[in-house]
Amino acid sequence: MTQLLAASPNPMPTAERYSHADIHLIRAPTASIIEHTWRSNHHAFGTTVALETYVAGLKNLDNQEFSGRKNHTIWILVPKTFNQDYEPDLDLILATAETYERPGLLATTQDGVKDVRAISVASVHTPERYRGNGYASVMMKLLWKEIQQMRHISFTFLYSAVGPTFYGRIGWAPKRSDEMLIPTEHVLPQAETDVIPPVVLQEITDQELPALLEQDAARLRQRMQTRLETASSKQTLVAPLPESNCVRWLLARARFTTEHILKLDQHQITAVGAKDSKSDSFVLWYPSLLEDKLFVLRWHLDEKLLRRDRDNTATALIKVLQQEAKKWKLSQAVIWNPEQSLADLAGLCIRYRYEKAIPSMGLVTSLEHDTDDVNWVLSEKYSWC
Ligand SMILES: CC(C)(COP(=O)(O)OP(=O)(O)OC[C@H]1O[C@@H](n2cnc3c(N)ncnc32)[C@H](O)[C@@H]1OP(=O)(O)O)[C@@H](O)C(=O)NCCC(=O)NCCS
């Protein structure tokens, strides 16, 4: 046993432990430190991709409007002795996280529906040799304080991959989330050909996203207003705003995968969704080829449609999702938090999603708020990061 250890070519150095009083959270100050954090978390978030390709993908994302320097921050937890100005010892970075500032909506019976700013958190990571020392917990507590001190932020959210407890005890309360899987080979109870006249769908392209999502956001404000009419005075309704920048950021990820990771001959993602030519109904999608899923980013059925037309439109939209998934050789499409009526129409089940990407939300203004009274409206994939 001793001999085996002695023969190891790269023995792992024992990591020094720092008292929580001796560490602090700072913004990664330089491009080289930012790149170091990406290289360091490759084994956790990019295992299916070679390191240089992973870093290139993150650089590409960093150039998107959504993650412009003003909105996107990489946080590093370091000992207070860490010298960020002169040849910093990058091995002393104990934990890292990213935040994205973005628009949101917040509604209460007192103040009505307000446009606010929100912060989503992603890529929470502790290098393996530093794990189990409470560093990620300390980092998230300090991050919560940082967000509070920004003053203009109303709520913060993230998608937990480590269950409900870790982030829940700091302030990001887990919210129930469901999903419906639509296998590409699933035969819908009602075939599109049964519908006379047939529903006519049009492709949605990138250029249409800003106008389409502005209308969508306007409808969401209205929907929250309506919900307030029956809400109790304790309740707060919260939603990340559906907007083109976050959707384009997700599409940039998908495009990088088709072109530079899988290097597909037919790599162009031209249609990013489909809309009904006669109503406001539409669906936006995002092919996640490494996960074998076509994710629905946003699903909307026009409430003004009569029941029969609504069902026909929904059927046509599901069929187009199946076609799009097939086009990318994916085995299924996935919708987060669909209505039960949609599952009934499709002849499919809705299942509780409790393991991966658990939506977790906190109001920054007050930790005393009963988290059950904070309702996440429109919890769909568009706000994932
Ligand atoms: C999750 C992670 C950031 C924790 O880092 P850490 O510095 O060791 O965290 P802490 O020491 O502060 O706390 C660890 C707690 O998280 C729990 N935890 C860690 N990994 C977990 C996992 N995969 N599932 C559930 N709980 C987990 C630990 O059990 C521990 O709980 P305890 O305090 O009740 O004992 C680290 O394991 C990591 O980088 N993992 C890979 C990347 C990842 O999954 N990030 C989270 C994305 S949402």
UniProtKB/TrEMBL annotation:
Pfam families xref list: Acetyltransf_9, GNAT_LYC1-like
Superkingdom to which the source organism belongs: Eukaryota
Domain LYC1 C-terminal: start-end pairs: 188-385
Protein name: LYC1 C-terminal domain-containing protein
Source organism phylogeny: Eukaryota, Fungi, Fungi incertae sedis, Mucoromycota, Mortierellomycotina
